Amino acid sequence: MAEPMNERPAHIAVVGAGATGLAAAITFARDGFDTVLIGRPSGQADGRTVALLDGSVTFLAAIGAWRQLAPAAAPMTCMRIVDATGSLFAPPPLTFHASEIGLDAFGYNIENAALVDGLAQVARATPRLTIRDAPLAAADSHAAGLRLTLADGDTLEPPLVVGADGRQSLVRHALDVAVRTWTYRQTALTAIFAHARPHRDTSTELHTRGGPFTLVPLPGRRSSLVWVCPPYQARRLRRMTADELASAVERQAQSMLGAMTLEGHCGVVPMQGLSVARFAGHGAALVGEAAHVFPPIGAQGLNLGLRDVAALRDVIVDARSRGQAIADATAMSRFSRGRLVDARTRTGVIDALNRSLLLDMLPLDLVRGAAMLTLDAAGPLRRLVMREGLAPRLGLPSLMRRAGAGFAS
């Protein structure tokens, strides 16, 4: 149950009660900032999961949330990449083990609904955090920052507004941030399947000409599916009965997990991208899908959003320690620059990987096959790629480092 509005004005208002917004609100409140979360947390069982990579798990543990989430998550101790493009230069399957870089697991896979519901439980028990169920109706710029108008008519003018309100962000619109969007001629089919054989905590990604086909472990003999394919194929798959779809998935997976059974409904995710010209300005900062949208490839979307939150936390805690305003223009500019580098780098890598699969060109196939063979053989390079795939080594926010800086007292 949400707390009533207290008389003490909020230092920070977080707009958006999805996973990123919830994590942000919990983080800031635990650091001693009076925080208002605007929006109603609601996890929907839609067949989608999120692979939380090691830095994200470390961060969620630091803010006191991982203990609540862990029982619903499955470890990913092994990642297997299979070239199923039919290329003449297809290399053997490439397998990465978390133990090679000193980790028990690359990360953990959890259903979106369980993630949001678990974070909401933590948020409701967090001191200095007020949840306002009324959604944001409008955000307007004024001399000192942003004025927020809620659907129930209340208005707020906090020193710092954090926009975690998704790809149609009202906060971003109020900041007048330039946005670039793009689409792919692909659709992602998502679902959860039970299967006859154990997954052995292994995430398997088949690279096909239509895009990646990925099975990620869940607790028990269950896995989540992200099948990126042409729109006509996605439409055909959606029209299938549950048994027909399960058989199609088993065939595509080369029966590696045995007979499959669909759990619940399958969903469709548009293959789109979004990037912003800046992450902050005029008393506000953008995090998560308000600042970047990724296609569901490479487990980058939410992990990048949580890095946004952890990086913003470092900046505002540092500003407070220096006696500066938490939305100090210099601090917000530093936050924006760092996040732009990280987001653009990840965008470029994911975009290049996806487009390389779609192009049936022998020279490109040769380069991709040679790269996979090199990674298989060159230990130091292999370990570097694994580490960078999880998170950037340079500039990693303090709460995502295993030796984390902890919370301010």
Automatic annotation (TrEMBL):
Molecular function GO terms recorded: FAD binding; monooxygenase activity; oxidoreductase activity, acting on paired donors, with incorporation or reduction of molecular oxygen
UniProt key word Mitochondrion: no
Pathway given in the UniProt record: Cofactor biosynthesis; ubiquinone biosynthesis
InterPro entries in the record: FAD-bd, FAD/NAD-bd_sf, UbiH/COQ6, UbiH/COQ6_monooxygenase
Cofactor(s) named in the record: FAD
Domain of life: Bacteria
Keywords for this protein: FAD, Flavoprotein, Monooxygenase, Oxidoreductase
Keyword hit for Protein transport: no
One Pfam family in the UniProt entry: FAD_binding_3
Ranges for domain FAD-binding: 12-314
GO BP, sorted A to Z: ubiquinone biosynthetic process
PANTHER family noted in UniProt: UBIQUINONE BIOSYNTHESIS MONOOXYGENASE COQ6, MITOCHONDRIAL
Family designation: Belongs to the UbiH/COQ6 family.
Name of this protein: 2-octaprenyl-6-methoxyphenyl hydroxylase
